[in-house]
């Protein structure tokens, strides 16, 4: 009896989980199965390669997951791949797993890992942008971004209620790693009086002095009954609680801080993330079928685009877009 060697397509999720990763896994699995592939899910990001920890994905395994947050395959940050011999060892393990191609769902860090891996593993590697941060060059959105915005927005709206009732100032910290997109979009959507992200700050001391004065002006003239400041994590050298304390000292108004934290990564993906993940997943499998490699599939102006991994790192142009949008929406209450 002859055995037919099926084309084995590996898929993994890596870096921070993002709502919609499951939708991408589902799309890759269904499209891959229809292309006649065997779909090998690699568990817990790159760690699953080192540990040979895999599961075969069938249509049944991805049934009813499109609406679920988290990731069926689990995710992780994998220090071993960053070690000097890590990529070579990982390539050996991929060969042991008899994989013919690999699709990576993750952020720009995961794609940097993919570039290292490709130095030792000659088969197709395709990426899909999956991170709540939207900090990837070459795609307008990343999977999970819009869900994170909605989750943050839901919480900030609630904070607004209590801020209004007490006529307080609130500093609300959102995620984003080193990128202000979550702060920007959730801040615009909740009508924040201020949105702070490092992209806007040239000199922190000057920036803060202007901020304190703008707040004092607004509260003195009662331009608003509550004052909500949405700040991206890592924007300033001081933490959000310290910023709130300094604002209170300067203005004399009771000021509280709240860090939204990991709730921003959870929950059912919104429609936009499900659709984006499905489209990207299908296109990633198509790219594999065409023998392409070293690329992230992204979405730019509603068109699928292929961006070499080396160009997916956050670029200044990305920051410029953000600054332009923020300048448009950030009302200066001292005007
Ligand atoms: N320079 C690198 N060399 C080798 N591997 C890397 C490198 N950078 C990142 N990786 C691998 O990719 C994994 C994920 O990267 P990282 O933690 O930066 O998250 P990410 O993919 O950017 O996602 P998120 O934006 O959601 O945090 C790392 O844990 C590591 O295994
Ligand atoms: O889960 P960890 O490793 O603490 O990472 C937190 C980081 O991951 C993200 O949620 C996604 O990259 C960032 O916004 C945040 O800074």
From TrEMBL:
<keyword id="KW-0479">Metal-binding</keyword>
<dbReference type="GO" id="GO:0030388">
    <property type="term" value="P:fructose 1,6-bisphosphate metabolic process"/>
</dbReference>
<dbReference type="GO" id="GO:0061621">
    <property type="term" value="P:canonical glycolysis"/>
</dbReference>
<comment type="similarity">
    <text>Belongs to the phosphofructokinase type A (PFKA) family.</text>
</comment>
<dbReference type="InterPro" id="IPR012003">
    <property type="entry name" value="ATP_PFK_prok-type"/>
</dbReference>
<dbReference type="GO" id="GO:0046872">
    <property type="term" value="F:metal ion binding"/>
</dbReference>
<comment type="pathway">
    <text>Carbohydrate degradation; glycolysis; D-glyceraldehyde 3-phosphate and glycerone phosphate from D-glucose: step 3/4.</text>
</comment>
<dbReference type="GO" id="GO:0005524">
    <property type="term" value="F:ATP binding"/>
</dbReference>
<keyword id="KW-0324">Glycolysis</keyword>
<keyword id="KW-0808">Transferase</keyword>
<dbReference type="Pfam" id="PF00365">
    <property type="entry name" value="PFK"/>
</dbReference>
<dbReference type="GO" id="GO:0048029">
    <property type="term" value="F:monosaccharide binding"/>
</dbReference>
<protein>
    <recommendedName>
        <fullName>6-phosphofructokinase</fullName>
        <ecNumber>2.7.1.11</ecNumber>
    </recommendedName>
</protein>
<dbReference type="GO" id="GO:0005945">
    <property type="term" value="C:6-phosphofructokinase complex"/>
</dbReference>
<dbReference type="GO" id="GO:0006002">
    <property type="term" value="P:fructose 6-phosphate metabolic process"/>
</dbReference>
<dbReference type="GO" id="GO:0070095">
    <property type="term" value="F:fructose-6-phosphate binding"/>
</dbReference>
<feature type="domain" description="Phosphofructokinase">
    <location>
        <begin position="8"/>
        <end position="288"/>
    </location>
</feature>
<keyword id="KW-0460">Magnesium</keyword>
<dbReference type="GO" id="GO:0042802">
    <property type="term" value="F:identical protein binding"/>
</dbReference>
<keyword id="KW-0067">ATP-binding</keyword>
<keyword id="KW-0547">Nucleotide-binding</keyword>
<dbReference type="GO" id="GO:0016208">
    <property type="term" value="F:AMP binding"/>
</dbReference>
<dbReference type="InterPro" id="IPR035966">
    <property type="entry name" value="PKF_sf"/>
</dbReference>
<keyword id="KW-0963">Cytoplasm</keyword>
<keyword id="KW-0418">Kinase</keyword>
<dbReference type="GO" id="GO:0003872">
    <property type="term" value="F:6-phosphofructokinase activity"/>
</dbReference>
<dbReference type="InterPro" id="IPR022953">
    <property type="entry name" value="ATP_PFK"/>
</dbReference>
<dbReference type="InterPro" id="IPR000023">
    <property type="entry name" value="Phosphofructokinase_dom"/>
</dbReference>
